[in-house]
Design brief:
The chain is of the alpha/beta class. The chain has 2 domains: about 5-220, 3-Layer(aba) Sandwich (Rossmann fold), CATH 3.40.50; about 240-380, DNA Methylase, Chain A, domain 2. Helix content is about 30%, strand content about 10%. The chain has 13 helices and 11 strands. The chain has helices at about 5, 20-25, 40-55, 60-70, 75-80, 85, 100-110, 130-135, 145-160, 180-190, 270-275, 295-310, 370-380; strands at about 10-15, 30-35, 90, 115-120, 160-165, 195-205, 215-220, 255, 260, 280-285, 285. Strands 3-2-1-4-5-7-6 form a 7-stranded mixed sheet, sandwiched between helices. It has a two-stranded antiparallel sheet with strand order 8-11. The chain has a two-stranded antiparallel sheet with strand order 9-10. The longest helix is centred in the N-terminal third of the chain and has 18 residues, at about 40-55. The radius of gyration is 22 Å and the shape is globular.
């Protein structure tokens, strides 16, 4: 597929989150028509990224950099781009009584053009193995289980040639109240809309991402094909997680800022090949959260154990004066170090902002949880991707 042809392929991103999936399609030359997302903060991230792409394509990235340096406000940034770019981000929860309004906004943006592709996947909590294990009913009856029905309504209205439905591994085994697999119900519904479907499991670390992250991708097409996986080329760089951390300034707990920090010299290739680092010699969002004395002591113990024995710290191993929870079983592996000396890290999850204990920086001297920028790099978000909250794909 030529790049010129790729640029004419228009897509909708549903349940867009911070825009990680969309960013991949944009890098590949696809053109977003709209992003639909319920979270207000995530929508500001999407709008800012839409402004970035327009300014980049217009040769005006200096204006975007001025925003990152605090020289202009977010509102002033948005005024520099066509209003359509900002309106392409639709801040709305996808539900039965909101569909008509969302469709109306998308129709205005389309201006009579067709949608070629729909991407996205509903919130994963209802399907995830962790979510089901924590819920007394195994998430059965949770309304989020049925958001795929509304996804189907977008297929019915816009009839794209293809769709891509992304979700967690738990989708393969999640069942409804009657014991039927949600995945089977989805495929039946999508078939009623005229789509042949097939699913495949992808591991992010097979494609240059330095974290363990498996996802189920359900592909659909209206062209009657049964063998249609657009298989990407695998890329497994021979590096460790340290590669995404070593050029960032060292920080103690509570230090840093969202404003630009000067990067250290970097002689490697991975950060450039992965599209993380660019020609800028600075980076934003490198700010470490503060920690209390007790947590800092635990972090030190956890990193030391990993450095000396390559072993994880278990909660029951802590000195009694550092144990604050009676139910030690529930917190067995609560404190986990990001292993700099391994080729992949454990998965970055959406609630990272609430649980820094699970993402301890591997440098014992820095003794802190990872920063939003470090978390973003672990997912291959580019350094010019900006959000005042942690970025999670």
């Amino acid at each position: 597929m030529t790049e010129n042809k790729q640029k004419t392929i228009r897509f909708l991103d549903l349940f867009a989150g911070a825009g990680g999936l969309s960013e991949g399609f944009i890098r590949a030359g696809f053109t977003p028509v709209a992003h639909v997302e319920a979270d207000k903060a995530a929508c500001f991230t999407l709008k800012t990224r839409a402004a970035y792409h327009w300014l980049k394509n217009s040769g005006r990235l200096s204006s975007y950099n001025a925003y990152l340096h605090g020289k202009i406000t977010r509102g002033e940034l948005y005024k520099l781009v066509p209003k359509k770019q900002i309106l392409s981000v639709i801040n709305s929860e996808i539900r039965e009584d909101s569909l008509a309004e969302i469709f109306g906004e998308i129709d205005i943006l389309l201006r009579g053009e067709k949608v070629d592709l729909i991407i996205g996947g509903p919130p994963c909590q209802a399907y995830s193995l962790a979510g089901r294990s924590r819920d007394k009913n195994g998430m059965k009856g949770d309304k989020r289980n049925y958001l795929y029905v509304y996804y189907s309504e977008f297929l019915r209205r816009y009839k794209p040639k293809y769709f891509l439905f992304e979700n967690v591994m738990g989708l393969l085994s999640a069942k409804d109240e009657n014991g039927a697999l949600y995945l089977s119900s989805m495929k039946e519904l999508f078939k009623e809309q005229g789509y042949e479907t097939a699913e495949k499991v992808f591991s992010a670390n097979d494609y240059g991402v330095l974290q363990k992250r498996k996802r189920v991708i359900l592909f659909g097409n209206r062209e009657g094909k049964t063998e249609f996986f657009p298989m990407p080329e695998e890329w497994k760089p021979n590096i460790n997680v340290e590669e995404i951390l070593k050029d960032l300034p060292s920080l103690k707990a509570g230090a840093g800022s969202i404003s630009p920090h000067k990067l250290k010299n970097y002689s490697g290739k991975y950060l450039y090949d992965a599209g993380i680092r660019n020609s800028n010699e600075w980076v934003t969002l490198h700010i470490a959260r503060p920690h209390n004395v007790q947590d800092l002591e635990i972090y030190h113990i956890a990193v030391k154990k990993w450095d000396e024995y390559r072993q994880r710290l278990y909660y029951y191993e802590l000195p009694d004066n550092l144990k604050t929870h009676k139910n030690q079983t529930s917190f067995t592996d609560r404190f986990k170090v990001v292993a700099a000396d391994l080729p992949v890290s454990h998965t970055v999850v959406a609630h990272i902002a609430k649980d820094g204990h699970y993402y301890i920086h591997p440098d014992i001297d820095q003794n802190r949880s990872i920063t939003p920028r470090e978390a973003a790099r672990m997912q291959t978000f580019p350094d010019d991707y900006f959000n005042k909250l942690p970025l999670v794909a």
